[in-house]
């Protein structure tokens, strides 16, 4: 009975966000349809060109609902211990051929590892599931986790967004997932300070962090120091930048305090 009441409560909490997402997709499809009709009536040359892929489909509804369930049941909590999910290093990528590796990290050169292996004792780890890297590489380490495809070619297909759009089917095994991650980093340059890993096929990182589409969080001393919102609508790097800027200022302030204390001590010791 307790489990059923908890499930009902979660469902009631999810429904407003779920319906708002559905409304957005319905409006999006309506706008696209109106544009195509107007183009057809005006006898535009581009009328009817290109395949129209509706976003509000049964696959889309299922994907949205599952994403809200993942968010509701995520293990990660702000201020609590960070889940140490299993991930797989994406070999042959620019990150692993680069000599830039977090000092003191426990990562190996290949194979399966743990997400917190990339955290050092005194530096925050920015974990992006889905840049700020160059600006804040002095104060933090960065990790990009490639997860299950949100819009696979054999599932909820999204409209193409320009010539650099990619099409991947649902990952059937770990080799396909790593291959897709490699293909992405071949076309999108990631800074050498950012390590790249892929979630395991049991999607344990996706489930633990309630990602579904995308999410960013900051791990510091094995605890969640910052937990970003559920993507795509609440995925924002603005707060992450502010957090890192504050961390950088705090670091400079601590160094200044140490220098001032040392200078004051030396002055006291002078005859």
Automatic annotation (TrEMBL):
GO terms for molecular function: thyroxine 5'-deiodinase activity. InterPro entries: Iodothyronine_deiodinase. It is a single-pass membrane protein. It comes from the Eukaryota. Keywords: Membrane, Oxidoreductase, Selenocysteine, Thyroid hormones biosynthesis, Transmembrane, Transmembrane helix. It is found in: Endomembrane system. It comes from Cyprinodon variegatus (Sheepshead minnow). Belongs to the iodothyronine deiodinase family. GO terms for biological process: hormone biosynthetic process; thyroid hormone metabolic process. One of its GO terms (cellular component) is endomembrane system. Gene3D superfamilies: Glutaredoxin (3.40.30.10). This is Iodothyronine deiodinase.
């Amino acid at each position: 009975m307790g489990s059923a009441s908890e499930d009902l409560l979660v469902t009631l909490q999810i429904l407003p966000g779920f319906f708002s997402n559905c409304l957005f997709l319905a409006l999006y499809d309506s706008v696209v349809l109106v544009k195509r009709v107007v183009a057809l009536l005006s006898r535009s040359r581009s009328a009817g060109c290109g395949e129209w892929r509706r976003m509000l489909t049964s696959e889309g509804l299922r994907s949205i609902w599952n994403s809200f369930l993942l968010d509701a049941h995520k293990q990660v909590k702000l201020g609590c211990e960070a889940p140490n999910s299993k991930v797989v290093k994406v070999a042959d990528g620019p990150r692993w051929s680069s000599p830039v590796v977090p000092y003191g990290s426990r990562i190996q050169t290949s194979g399966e590892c743990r997400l917190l292996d990339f955290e050092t004792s005194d530096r925050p780890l920015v974990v992006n599931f889905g840049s700020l890297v160059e600006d804040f590489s002095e104060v933090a380490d960065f990790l990009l986790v490639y997860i299950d495809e949100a819009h696979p070619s054999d599932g909820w297909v999204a409209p193409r967004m320009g010539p650099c759009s990619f099409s991947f089917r649902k990952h059937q095994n770990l080799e396909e997932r790593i291959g897709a991650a490699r293909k992405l980093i071949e076309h999108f340059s990631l800074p050498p300070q950012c390590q790249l890993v892929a979630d395991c096929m049991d999607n344990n990182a996706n489930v633990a962090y309630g990602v579904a589409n995308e999410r960013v969080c900051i791990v510091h001393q094995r605890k969640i120091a910052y937990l970003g919102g559920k993507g795509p609508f609440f995925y924002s790097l603005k707060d992450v930048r502010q957090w890192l800027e504050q961390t950088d200022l705090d670091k400079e302030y601590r160094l200044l305090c140490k220098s001032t204390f040392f200078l004051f001590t030396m002055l006291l010791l002078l005859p």
